[in-house]
Amino acid sequence: MTRLHAQLSRFEDAFPGFRTEIVEGSVVACPLRPHHAGTVFAAWKALGPQLGPEWDVVSDVAFPLDEDNEFCPDLAVIPAPEANRNAIAYPPDLIELVVEVASQGSIRRDHEVKPGRYASRGIANYLILDPMNGHAVTMWNPGPDGYRGRDTIPYGPDLTIDSPLGKPKIPTAGLPVDPKARSQP
Questions:
Q1: CA angle, 147 then 151 then 156, to 5°
Q2: Cα–Cα distance between 36 and 26 in angstroms, integer?
Q3: Nearest to 140 by CA among 121, 157, 126, 158
Q4: Spatial distance between the Cα atoms of 79 and 152, rounded to a whole number of angstroms
Q5: Distance in angstroms (rounded) separating the CA atoms of residues 105 and 114
Q6: Which helix (H) or strand (E) holds 36?
Q7: In which order are the strands placed within the sheet that holds 18-23?
Q8: C-beta of residue 164 within 8 angstroms of C-beta of residue 171
Q9: CB within 8 A of 80, min separation 6: which ones?
Q10: Greatest Cα-to-Cα distance within the chain, rounded to the nearest angstrom
Q11: 57 and 47 Cβ atoms separated by less than 8 Å
Q12: pTM value?
């Protein structure tokens, strides 16, 4: 894992404006767009005040899951004392909720690869916010083969996440939606 983490650090320096992570043993760099950042900010702003003082939200820090996967989720809720350590990487078993924002380059990873990996590590809730399609995908009830519960909810009403953290809500009506996505068949 040390070799891959060293590669990841070099790529982050070489490609400013890209988010890098290790997925299935490969270093992946994705450009970020304004709708991505706006969605991350809105979700963080909504979640933060609803968490008790024992929890905190972190963004784009490493969670080494296994030898081939070191994910840097857009948002992860972990215990506040751990977040206060201000580390570059954390064990995945600290995560109670992970939020990824789908982008053109991350569709397969966010929808196919990451759910299985996060579920196998026992992460209670996985949420994908998708500005390209204007919907959210919630996953819960993790098992060794993936999440047993999954819903796709169009943006509009508040999204309630039934989790060990309680029932935090994310307003979705104002989340950005890519205008090109609306015109696609």
A1: 145
A2: 22
A3: 126
A4: 28
A5: 14
A6: helix 34-47
A7: 26-31, 18-23, 69-71, 63-66
A8: no
A9: 53, 54, 55, 56
A10: 47
A11: yes
A12: 0.82
Residue 13 has pLDDT above 80, yes or no: no
Q: How far apart are alpha carbons 17 and 87 in whole angstroms? A: 21
For residue 89, the cross-strand partners are 62
Residue 18 · residue 29 · CB < 8 Å: yes
Judge contact between 96 and 83, C-beta under 8 A: no
The DSSP bridge partners found for residue 55 are 79
**The residue type at 105:** G
Contact between 67 and 47 under an 8 Å Cβ cutoff? The reply is no
Which residue type sits at 17?
G
Check if the beta carbon of residue 129 is closer than 8 Å to that of residue 136.
yes
Look at residue 185 in the predicted model and tell me its pLDDT: 40
pLDDT digits (tens, 9 = 90+) for 137-173: 999 999 998 999 999 999 999 999 999 999 999 999 9
When pLDDT is cut at 50, 70 and 90, the band that residue 67 belongs to is confident
